[in-house]
Design goal:
Layout (H helix, E strand, L loop, with lengths): L8 E11 L3 H4 L10 E13 L8 E11 L10 E18 L3 H9 L5 E3 L10 E4 L5 E7 L1 E21 L2 E18 L6 E2 L3 E2 L6 H4 L7 E2 L2 E11 L2 E10 L2 E6 L1 H4 L3 E5 L2 E12 L14 E2 L2 E2 L16 H6 L2 E8 L31 E8 L2
Parallel strand pairs: 2-7, 5-6
Antiparallel strand pairs: 1-2, 3-4, 4-8, 6-7, 8-9, 9-10, 9-13, 11-12, 13-14, 14-17, 15-16, 17-20, 18-19, 20-21
Length: 369
């Protein structure tokens, strides 16, 4: 969400402040009244300011695909459909805010001002925030146009259906591959982030929350196998989420660089359904010239419409009812362990990609009237 009007909003992002409070207020940098401060904060305060001068971003998107259904496969062996879709998205002039490291570097270089409370930052220029005693408390970053991203990949799909003497089988497999995700924001060099966490120090404050790890995954997909026979329906679904790299230490804050591999996962769901469908029999219309209950049918009896028999009460109540029992994550797999940037996560797993419910059973009843 981009704010053009409305209240100010705060969030947390990684930053490392090394410097002094504004010398015009507290004296020369390094003096007794204005000592050098060093604050390593993976969750520094960022004051977001609305900016009504924001302009719409520009996007360029193209897609191209192929759908192939082999006609040489005999019908008795089922039908196969293969789909391949290529896509590419480029965005420029993205409404975003400067990262805390860029603002801090700009402040130390004399480009951005320091704002001492109770003074207020402007809605058009970034700045570093200080309390009345000169202590560093965060940064102010109004929305600006200037971000750029380039993303491309391919979506794959396979569908197969076949009728047999023991029911109909269908297989649907859908996969997505992220080939490239390049981010380029003001003050930062372009970076390839496909297959990595979106809470890195250089992009986390734009796309993610350091306390809740998430990522741009290279691969993800679902495969569904379904069997139907008369009123029965059984299906199983396999979910795959690729692993990714997360940065848990940066030279800017820790003096060294360290990454952690968050493992890929496979989760399996199963579901069994039975549909209760009762069709009431219809009484055959009488035929003139034939006896019915010892009486001959004559005259207009041949125009009498068929009369439906009344179904038993329990059939009428349960008619068009589907009973379902299922279980998600049938093998009780745990989500992968994740630290988040500077071990800042409160979940210790990628909370934006997974939940911690584990194996979950459910029963469902659907009644159509």
């Amino acid at each position: 969400m981009v704010m053009l009007y409305g209240p100010r909003r705060g969030l947390l992002a990684p930053a490392n402040f090394v410097g002094c409070a504004p010398v015009a207020v507290f004296g020369p940098c390094g003096s007794d009244t204005n000592p050098v401060q060093e604050a390593e904060d993976p969750e520094t305060f960022v004051l977001q300011l609305p900016n009504k001068a924001i302009k719409p971003e520009h996007d360029r998107t193209w897609t191209g695909g192929i759908v192939y259904t082999p006609k040489w496969i005999p019908q008795k062996y089922g039908q196969l459909t293969l789909t391949v879709d290529f896509w590419d998205i480029e965005r420029t002039g993205i409404a975003m805010y400067f990262s805390p490291p860029v603002i801090i570097n700009g402040y130390n270089a004399g480009i951005f001002p320091g704002v001492v409370s109770p003074a207020q930052p402007t809605a058009t220029q970034p700045g570093v925030l200080f309390d009345p005693l000169g202590n560093y408390v965060g940064v102010a970053s109004p929305y600006q146009n200037g971000g750029r991203t380039r993303t491309n990949g391919v979506d794959l799909s396979l569908q197969y259906q076949v009728e047999t003497g023991i029911g109909a089988f269908s297989l649907l497999s859908r996969w997505s591959y992220l080939n490239e995700m390049v981010v380029n924001f003001p003050g930062e060099r372009p970076r390839q982030v496909a297959g990595s966490s979106s809470t890195e120090w250089f992009v986390g404050n734009f796309f993610g929350d350091p306390s809740n790890p998430q990522a741009w995954l290279k691969w993800k997909g679902d495969t569904i196998l379904d069997w139907t026979w008369h009123n029965w329906d059984f299906n199983t679904t396999v979910h795959f989420l690729d692993g990714y790299w997360e940065q848990i230490a940066a030279v800017q804050f820790d003096g060294f660089y360290k990454r952690h591999w968050v493992r890929p996962t496979w989760f399996t769901d199963v579901q069994l359904s039975y549909s209760l469908v009762s069709t009431p029999p219809l009484e055959a219309p009488p035929v003139p010239g034939y006896s019915k209950d010892g009486k001959e049918v004559v005259g207009s009896a041949k125009e009498t419409p068929p009369a439906p028999y009344a179904m038993p009460c329990w059939k009428a109540i349960l008619n068009n009812t589907t009973l379902t029992v299922g279980v998600t994550n049938i093998f009780g797999e745990d989500p992968p362990h994740a630290f988040g940037y500077e071990a800042g996560t409160v979940f210790f797993y990628p909370g934006s990609l997974y939940d911690n419910l584990g194996r979950f059973w459910y029963v469902r009843i659907i009644k159509k009237f």
